[in-house]
Amino acid sequence: MARSVDVVVLGAGPGGYVCAIRLGQAGLKTLVIEREFLGGVCLNVGCIPSKALIHASKVYRKALDGAAIGIVAKDLTVDMAAMQAWKTGVTTKLSQGIGGLFKGNKVEHVIGTGKLAGPGKVEIALADGSVEVVETKSVVLATGSRPIQIPGFPFDNLQILDSTGALALSEIPGALAVIGGGVIGMEMADVYARLGSKVTVIEALDRILPTFDPDLARPVTMKQAKLGVKHLVATKALRQELTADGKIAIDLETTDKKGTTQSRLEVDKVLVSVGRRPSSHGIGLETVGITPDARGFVPVDRQMKTSAPGVYAIGDLVPGPMLAHKASKEGEIAAEVIAGHAAAFDSVCIPSVVYTDPEIATVGPMLFELEAQGRKIKVGKFQFAALGRAISSNATDGFARVVADADDGTILAVHIVGAEASELIAQSGLALEMSATAEDLALTIHAHPTMAEALAEAAHIVTGHPLHAMPTPAR
Ligand code: FAD
Ligand code: NAI
Hints:
binds 1,4-dihydronicotinamide adenine dinucleotide; 5-stranded mixed barrel; 5-stranded parallel β-sheet; globular; FAD/NAD(P)-binding domain; alpha/beta; single chain; Enolase-like, domain 1
């Protein structure tokens, strides 16, 4: 007889596993089907391992560059095998933790590949070749996304790497090409440049991190340039071939105001990080009448409901930014809705962080987007170079910017580039959710000396009363 449950969750990434925990807490009989690893991309081959390598490579670089603050390290070396082993320990621990949370919340899970098999039915292909059919009242699709390949650069994860391959290197490449100067590209360029690789970033558009305001990306590219990273913008990687001495030669084409020029680059490894696409293929959408959009995303409403009754979808599989915290929030909402509670996605903002050096963290739209909308805004920008804590931490690159509505002072966006930006952004998210004004932020007492004071200072500039900046009118 087929197993029968209340809810099947397909995929155990930050969307699926959070959803399953909430469903378990609501007393619903929940089965998670995961084909590879608990925690999904984020925990195993994404957010967590990348942050582990970012941390480790920063520790190395800080020691190497410590002479200016009186720390002189001699004979410093990197043991890549040990670094990778530590990283794997981190991801294993967290993945096992999810298994524990499932048990604690009475969530069952099975390792296998699942797909919809018509209304109320899910098929699981198990490792032993058998197929199990499960009957269920609801299904949550949380199958995530996978990297996009470009013609002529097939992933082999030996020399032509996707992000998973780039996170698993057992040796530091002498020369690394990074195709795509977006979030993954810049984070990984940072890691390997810090560890000593000669990195070249190849970006098709005319600037690095093109979805961010140019002044947010600049401190990052400048810091990378100091490490010897070359940024080739408006450049396409046309083709590649293996050279006689085992290198990869890439033919490049750059188009700028001067015209089109061709060049060749020889490297040991290539990371292709040109975006990700939703994993909507092969999961039986057609058996319940769901049609993905042109880019492969599964359309959903604010309650994460698809067009098929009883079928929900969350995370990278659905439109919106491909971020772990967005996936988890959607997972919670889907679970609440299935449990019969009144819930819908109504967050004002989804924070976005790039873990480069310096970090970039934002809530709300970019300046260029607000300007394109014709919004009347006031902008306060405070440089970390004028902040006591930043100076005493040797971390003066960057700034904090508060953008408010010109008429009523409501904060519309906060942009930070600098040390600790990933942590600093949290209070700004709360400010936007609570419709705080720049004055509210300026009136809040911030501990001294902290990096967070930059936000209060930026808010003071918006209100026209700067304390540690010259009194120029907010733009
Ligand atoms: P996923 O995490 O992709 O999980 C989907 C799961 O479904 C996978 O485990 C997969 O094995 C499983 N699955 C797929 N198909 C099936 C099937 N048919 N049957 C059974 N199981 C199936 N986001 C951030 O917010 N912060 C970061 O710092 C960050 N860093 C990143 C770094 C890298 C290198 C990468 C690649 C991504 C990063 N992301 C980051 C993005 C983040 O990983 C994703 O947004 C997030 O993992 C999406 O969660 P999800 O649950 O939708 O899908
Ligand atoms: P991305 O969309 O951030 O960047 C891709 C870049 O590649 C863009 O700048 C694009 O213009 C460029 N590009 C596209 N085609 C190209 C080509 N043929 N040649 C050269 N350049 C090309 O995608 P990325 O970096 O792959 O990351 C995927 C997703 O993972 C992101 O959208 C993000 O949501 C998520 N992520 C989030 C992180 C975080 O929150 N810190 C970290 C890493 C990934």
